[in-house]
Design a protein that fits this description.
315 residues, mainly alpha, MetI-like fold, 2 domains, 13 helices, 0% strand, globular
Length: 315
């Protein structure tokens, strides 16, 4: 196991380097000059030149990338060109918000999607199966921004049950935090639940035809034990993989959902940074998101061996 993890980490390092190179070079193709933005409305030539020298904007791209990588290795991702704050501080402020939203969305997705997928597979061809597929198709078809707006109109404006927007840290006021995050988490969770339902159903249908499931039934085991202990556990592998990918996607920021509910997460941070040509923030956010996705996939690979001991023979 340790050897496998070390091998995966050895692959992760060049992956992060490639991601950083692509992000650093491609964003240079964006129109606009950050030095002109920082110089202010007067755009004094001396001020523009000072900004370019301070942030190495007058250096070749390769040299700019070298300066940035040296800072990242030392724990310095640079300073935001717009706010003047360290990029690492901005990320530290926004990352817990997106992590909380992602975790709550996945909890909702698992609570809805996995049971529906199991029931749909067990009751294949029945009205319950058709109903579950209709619900899943609806979850995939309904845009998140439309569902978010409808929830705000119904739950916040008409019923007054939950706040329409805003955010409160869970460490400051847990109840208020849950109230502000439950609707955006539900919006994201329903679309993820539809995807999880379809994958769980497909995996369960394949497992239910396996010989060991028929053997378990022939032994006289209760159907509940056969489904949950023998079938579902072996059907978890694709679900674990999908969950890791979905969580990594959420870490990148659910941009529309965060914008609709005014949540100060990764999505809003990177959108604002792109529009203001805040290169340091874009680079830092993308690099952290890539590192998070790699870490989550590593955790998913480790979970394979916990869920299915037969995978250990592949080492």
């Amino acid at each position: 196991m340790l050897t496998y993890i070390i091998r995966r980490l050895a692959i992760a390092v060049p992956t992060l380097i490639l991601v950083s190179i692509f992000v650093f070079t491609l964003q240079k193709l964006l129109p606009g000059d950050p030095a002109l933005i920082l110089a202010g409305e007067d755009r004094d030539p001396a001020a523009i030149e000072f900004v370019r020298e301070k942030y190495h904007l007058n250096e070749p791209i390769a040299l700019q990338y070298t300066y940035w990588v040296q800072g990242v290795v030392q724990g310095d991702m640079g300073v935001s060109l717009r706010s003047g704050q360290p990029v690492l501080k901005l990320i530290a402020d926004k990352l817990p918000v997106t992590i909380q939203l992602a975790i709550m969305a996945l909890i909702i997705a698992f609570s809805i999607g996995v049971p529906m997928g199991i029931l749909s597979a067990v009751k294949k061809g029945t009205m319950l199966d058709y109903a579950a597929n209709v619900v899943a198709l609806s979850g995939l078809s309904i845009p998140n921004f439309w569902l978010g707006i409808m929830l705000i109109l119904l739950v916040s404006v008409n019923l007054g049950w939950l706040p329409a927007s805003g955010y409160e840290s869970i460490f400051v006021d847990p109840l208020r935090s849950l109230e502000t995050m439950i609707m955006p988490a539900f919006v994201l969770g329903t679309s993820l639940a539809a995807t999880l339902m379809r994958h769980t159903r497909s995996a369960m249908l394949g497992v239910l035809k396996a010989d060991y499931v028929r053997t378990a039934r022939a032994k006289g085991l209760r159907e509940k034990v056969v489904i949950l202990k023998h079938a579902f556990r072996n059907a978890l592998l694709p679900v674990v993989t999908l969950s890791a990918l979905l969580f990594g996607e959420l870490l990148g920021g659910a941009v529309l959902t965060e914008q609709i509910f005014t949540i100060p997460g990764f999505g809003k941070l990177i959108v604002d940074a792109v529009f203001t040509r805040d290169y340091a923030v874009v680079q830092g956010v993308v690099l952290c998101a890539a590192a998070g996705v790699i870490l989550i996939n590593l955790v998913a690979d480790v979970l394979y061996f916990v869920v299915n001991p037969r995978m250990r023979s592949t080492l």
